């Protein structure tokens, strides 16, 4: 995953390792390129700089026959540009209603599932720790 400018600049060397896919993490890469935070006026995925970087990476991936995609919290305008460039996209689930103008009956269901999974992991960890304590005594 390319999320840092240093990874972008080291891409040629990475391509020689036999990787089969490049995924560009647009939110982090944009933040680091512009030294800004998300939702800042300077965090611009559609800037000429970012689009040139994407074209460069896409061209290198094509030459090596490596799958190429971008991922992140993407908006409709950016997705349209990626369509024009022929770049695959991986969307964060929370972006889907806005991008496709959809209403979802339970928009936070995945968030709820994640929270419940974390609780279960913690309780499982606590149970294992309790068993260890009992066995020690």
Automatic annotation (TrEMBL):
<feature type="domain" description="PEP-utilising enzyme C-terminal">
    <location>
        <begin position="1"/>
        <end position="89"/>
    </location>
</feature>
<dbReference type="GO" id="GO:0016772">
    <property type="term" value="F:transferase activity, transferring phosphorus-containing groups"/>
</dbReference>
<dbReference type="InterPro" id="IPR040442">
    <property type="entry name" value="Pyrv_kinase-like_dom_sf"/>
</dbReference>
<dbReference type="Pfam" id="PF02896">
    <property type="entry name" value="PEP-utilizers_C"/>
</dbReference>
<dbReference type="InterPro" id="IPR015813">
    <property type="entry name" value="Pyrv/PenolPyrv_kinase-like_dom"/>
</dbReference>
<protein>
    <submittedName>
        <fullName>PEP-utilizing enzyme family protein</fullName>
    </submittedName>
</protein>
<dbReference type="InterPro" id="IPR000121">
    <property type="entry name" value="PEP_util_C"/>
</dbReference>
């Amino acid at each position: 995953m390319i999320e840092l400018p240093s990874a972008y600049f080291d891409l040629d060397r990475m391509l020689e390792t036999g990787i089969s896919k490049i995924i560009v993490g647009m939110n982090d890469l944009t933040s680091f390129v512009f030294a800004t935070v998300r939702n800042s006026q300077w965090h611009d995925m559609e800037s000429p700089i970012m689009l040139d970087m994407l074209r460069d990476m896409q061209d290198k991936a094509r030459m090596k026959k490596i799958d190429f995609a971008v991922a992140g919290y993407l908006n409709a305008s950016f997705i349209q540009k990626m369509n024009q460039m022929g770049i695959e996209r991986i969307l964060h689930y929370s972006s889907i209603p806005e991008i496709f103008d959809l209403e979802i009956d339970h928009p936070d269901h995945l968030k709820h599932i994640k929270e419940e999974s974390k609780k279960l992991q913690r309780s499982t960890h606590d149970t294992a720790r309790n068993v260890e304590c009992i066995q020690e005594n």
